[in-house]
Fold this sequence. Notes:
Shape: globular
Organism: Pseudotabrizicola sediminis
Strand content: under 5%
Function: Part of the tripartite ATP-independent periplasmic (TRAP) transport system.
Number of domains: 1
Helix content: over 70%
Pfam families: DctM
Number of helices: 20
Subcellular location: Cell inner membrane
Main location: membrane
Structural class: mainly alpha
Amino acid sequence: MIVALIVGVMIGLPIFAAMGLSTLVHYLDTGRESTLLILNQRMFNGLTSFTFLAVPMFILAGELMVRGQLIDKLLDVARVFVGHFRGGLAQVNILSSVFFAGISGSGQADIAAMGSTIMPAMIKDGYPRGYAAAITAQSATLSPTLPPSIVMVIYGAVFGVPVAALFAAGISVGIFMAIAYMVMAYWTCRKYNLPKHPRANMAEVMSALRAGAVTLGLPLIILGGIFGGIFTTVEAAAIAVLYAIIATMVIYRSVTISDLGSIFASAAVTSAAVVVISGVALSFSYIVAVQHIPQQILDALLAFSGNEYVVLAMIIVVLLVAGMFVGRTANILLFGPIIIPIFYQFGYAPVHTGLIIIIILGVGHLTPPVGGAILTACLIGKCSMPEMLKYMWPMIILEVVLAILIIFIPQLSTFLPTFMELGGV
Length: 425
């Protein structure tokens, strides 16, 4: 199975196809028609999971808000709150990503939407082009951490963890990370003597809030409804789409009926890619479970070292390396069935385990050779990889330090789910 998986990836098969090829090896090994029926049934159940309905709807809501050109309003709100700090536009970049995460749930969408607006402004204000791209890539890693994170919806649906609990954990962890990013931005901008802007007066603050109220209302309604028990995650996603349609087509009139075809098509393509790999992953997870692969791997690791932390360190290194080459969702579905049971055996709570895996894989998005965030930021910011990486390394080190803190301080992940009695802890 492992050889088939590796060969499939090396010859250029999409991840879902490589995983599907791997599952067929199990069928050939058993030689039973019933095995093929079970694998097909598992995949079908994954494709038709009720929770997965939230994925295309959150993607569609984000697509509508981005195409509706509501990004400038988020930037204005961020600017009046943090623009007067040292490195004001770097701080605005980070806070804007926090706001945008509540709309898109996707790091790549964050860079594409926010980066095309904030990076030219930073360069014009005297920021090195590489630094502008680096801080944009780093801030975009907040999107999969903060709700409504599409990665968390998939993780919860596939591995049976309450999505609302993952969202709650993501809020505390995401805010913790955002504060750390802003502190680092302050010191690096001070080192490079980058500018700050005058403090906004109360009239400017109120004007920005009024202009951005409709845009900021989307994440507030989603989270308030889920955590308040008013509606489920799937219902929240449907309401997010309705809200986005009203905001962009009725209130601001920045999206017309003729635009809907391309918006729906873009959301459909993205959703299809996510859901197909999730369906195949459930077949793969079934085989991993029946073959007791996690226990076999754990026994092998413990034979190498009886120290729990050494075993976890080896798993983390594997995730860091994998994150350099493959996207976060694909890695979670690929490695999750194997490593999640190992975390559970060491006493880690389901929600805490999910946040650990999501954060560690996020580090790979900032590292060469195939880090998705840095490639997109270089493309949008029109800078070379070496130009960006000389500013990126301190940020990568910070990401690793934050991941270690999240591993050893479980309360960062479990406090809110426990307080709100959402389960998963």
